[in-house]
Amino acid sequence: MKYNRILLKLSGESLMGKQSYGIAPEMLEQYAKDIKAVVEKGVEVAIVIGGGNIFRGLSGASKGMDRVQGDYMGMLATLINSMALQAELEKQGMKTELLGGLAIEPICKEMSRRRAIEAMQEGRVVVIGGGTGNPFFTTDTASTLRAIEIKADVILKGTRVDGVYTADPEKDPTATKFASLTFQEALGKKLKIMDLTAFALCEENNLPIYVFDMNQPGNLLKVVTGEPIGTEVIKG
Question: How far apart, in whole angstroms, are the C-alpha atoms of residue 116 and residue 103?
């Protein structure tokens, strides 16, 4: 295995599937099966999911809502997604642990490095909702923070695109894919891989980011076994 302990970052929008809102059961099922495949190979897995399919704090703020209130609503949206994924993982026969930046009994305990690592070492998939527990931070930053805390080998950013391109491949047919990049190259080219806070944390802590297409069944297993199907961002 190329990676033994991973932090899988999923967007909330990815859970919509072909819907315009909410959670598509078929996407939950596919993701759970892919996660199960890597867990059965002995890989330790933690997951952070965004909440954009339900509510996004910045969107609320742009329409006049108080930013702090909006961000807390966004954190609750990530917990809804986390609960949905937890339920599907358990339906697939896996053991899980749901932790949160916000502790909400009886749904989840507060995230702590010790709890997360112990759960993974016991073979449980750790799902971490609630962002960082603080406003003004994105789930990109939350996933980076959690990956550093649990000493993950990599952040796997599952998207609907198979890597990082010179331009948006959905809009520009001439865009070409990078096999690998340094953090400085990505910043210099103004490639929007993660927000700047998350990006700086990754570079400072020498934490690689791997961007790949999570919507293609089987891709997660290919990534952890070292098959070069996406884009790796590493320290130069």
Answer: 14
Quickly count: other Cβ atoms within 10 Å of residue 83's Cβ. 16
Containing structural domain, residue 58 = 5-234
Structure confidence by residue, pLDDT tens digits, 32-75: 999 999 999 999 999 999 999 998 766 766 788 899 999 999 99
Decide if pLDDT at 129 tops 80: yes
5-20 pLDDT per residue, tens: 999 999 999 999 999 8
CATH number for the domain harbouring residue 25: 3.40.1160.10
Buried-state track 114-147, b at ≥16 Cβ within 10 A, e below 16: eebbebbeeebbbbbbbbbeebebbbbbbbbbbb
The tally of domains found in the chain comes to: 1
**How far is the C-alpha of 144 from the C-alpha of 197, rounded, in Å?**
9
Q: Which two tokens stand for residue 225?
A: 């076994």
Q: In terms of C-beta density within 10 A (0-12 exposed, 13-18 middle, 19 or more buried), how is residue 198 classed?
A: buried
